[in-house]
Structures are given as structure tokens and as C-alpha cells.
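Review this fold:
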Amino acid sequence: MNFTRRKENRVIIRQVPVLLLSATAILTLPFLAFSIFHVVRGTAAEGKWFSLFFGLLLGWVLLEFAATREKMDIDLGARTMSRIVSGVFRRRKQSIDLTAMKEIKIEVKKDWRGRRYDCLYICGDGAEYLLNNPNKNLNHRATGKLLSEVTGLPYRVVATEPIKMMGN
């Protein structure tokens, strides 16, 4: 889900995977509720400490690797864009100069099983920057259209051929 905030010459787009965050809460809540209930009451329940640590570990793994959040900070005055990907601890930052960019492109790719996925690129002057994780279930086409509106760059969708397996 995209959340957009505009401030003078800055546009901030936040991509929050609400479905994955909800799944994380649903999967970890039973373990944490059981263990916290028995630890607080002081009962001698079997496996309360294991459930506590397992629930915390499961929550950390899902939040760190599955439910990563993305933030795109576009400075229209300086014509720059920063993309920050964060989990619980992991942070990656990508900076792009928008003056050299020519278009925003979605490549629809198919893997050898026939699954389709979108790759969101910003292109220009011989460089292509991947702006998304294709494995996430976020709506990359909506993000591409939003980036096109904000930056004024043209937007297009390109389909590619499926990847062939060796021996076929």
C-alpha cells in the first residue's frame, strides 16, 4: 500500500506491506500471548519460555525479511530521489539523480514456471535502476504511475519473453 505525503518541494512515498504485517501479527500472536500470560501470572506452564523466544524469533524473521518497508523521498527542487528499504534492523539506501533520467518503466517478466512479476525501473543515459523487489506483492504499477506523475517522466509497460529452461 502506498502512502504519499507532499511538503513544498518534497514528495515522500511510503510502501507498507499491510498484508504481510498482518500475517506476521497473526502468526506470532499465539506464541507471544501464551508465553506472556503464563510468565506474568507465574504459572508453571510447560514451554512458556520456548514459546516466548520462538514467537520473538519468528516475528523478527518475518519483519526483517518478508515485511520490509520502502520509502522514496523525492526532492523536486534538487531533482534527486532517495530510496530507503528497511526491515527491523536492515537498511539499504539508493540515491538517484533525476536530471539524468528519461523514463519510468515496468518490465513484466515470466519465470520458467510461467509466473508473472513486475520489475519497476527508472531509466536514463544508459543506466537502469531497479526500484522494487519483484518478489513482493505490492502494486508496482501503481507506484510507477505515481512516480511518473510526481517526477514528470513518461511511464510505460514492457513485456519480455519467458525464461527458457536448458534442454528445451
